Amino acid sequence: MRLALWLALVGLLAVVAYASRASSGKPSPQTLYEWSTAVGALIQDAIVLGFVLAIAGFRRDLLALRRPASLGRTALVLVAALVGIYAFEGIYSALTHPGNEQGLTPAHWEPRHAAAYVVNSVVICTWIPFVEELTYRGVGYSLLARHGRWTAIAVVGLLFGLAHGLIVSLPIIALFGAVLAWVRSRTSSVLPGMALHAVFNLVALVAAVTVHR
């Protein structure tokens, strides 16, 4: 029952993401310079989190909110994950040239909107990874793990990718989700994945306004 409810939730998120893309196209490049973006993300993910917690029955074991057993091993796992993600992204991007398909990052830095950009960045690097990791690598992985570790990793990665509503960049996001699920499987905790997710988002946000394109 819990798995069916979780699949229904993440399936709905994927449908909404692709429907939004089909009807509205890419977000405005000014999106992260708008205060409403941060407010909307906080509210939207709060609603998702409420459903996730209800599906989990507020059970910490399903949420995997616990400290990793070995900090040293966790550090090695995170380094391996980060290297793997960026290696694949570099190779795939060179072959397919997806560009800024997600459309969230601006084309250039606008100092007059710096405060809004910083607030949006804080939300994207803290609140969103927190909710998404509990959703996919917490409850999702826990419920799917009974069907096999690699099955759980693959399904979580694919559904995470679909929830972003992308096409060309789908393999990158899906692999990222799968790698985060692998980190979860190796550490038995969502906390390392939250940290890795936050770093990945932060690098993208900083690069968007500092790297010449």
Secondary structure elements and pairings:
Elements: H1 2-24, H2 35-56, H3 60-63, H4 71-96, H5 114-144, H6 149-162, H7 170-187, H8 191-210
Helix pairs in contact: 1-2, 1-5, 1-6, 2-5, 4-7, 4-8, 5-6, 5-7, 5-8, 6-7, 7-8
List keywords for this structure.
globular, 8 helices, 74% helix, mainly alpha, 213 residues
Task: Describe the 3D structure.
The protein is built from 8 helices and no strands. By secondary structure, the chain is mainly α. The protein has one domain (2-210). Helix 1 runs antiparallel to helix 2, helix 5 crosses helix 7 (170-187) and helix 7 (170-187) packs antiparallel against helix 8 (191-210). The model has no long low-confidence stretch (mean pLDDT 93).
Total beta-strand segments: 0
Biggest sheet overview: none
Q: List the domain count as a whole number.
A: 1
Strand composition percent: under 5%
The ordered string of helix (H) and strand (E) elements is HHHHHHHH
Q: How much helix is in the residues? A: over 70%
Gross morphology is: globular
Secondary structural class: mainly alpha
Q: Give the quaternary arrangement of the chains.
A: single chain
Number of helices: 8
Task: Give average pLDDT, whole number.
Answer: 93
Q: Unreliable segments (pLDDT under 50, ≥5 consecutive)?
A: none
N-to-C terminal Cα separation, in Å? 48 Å
- Estimated radius of gyration: 17 Å
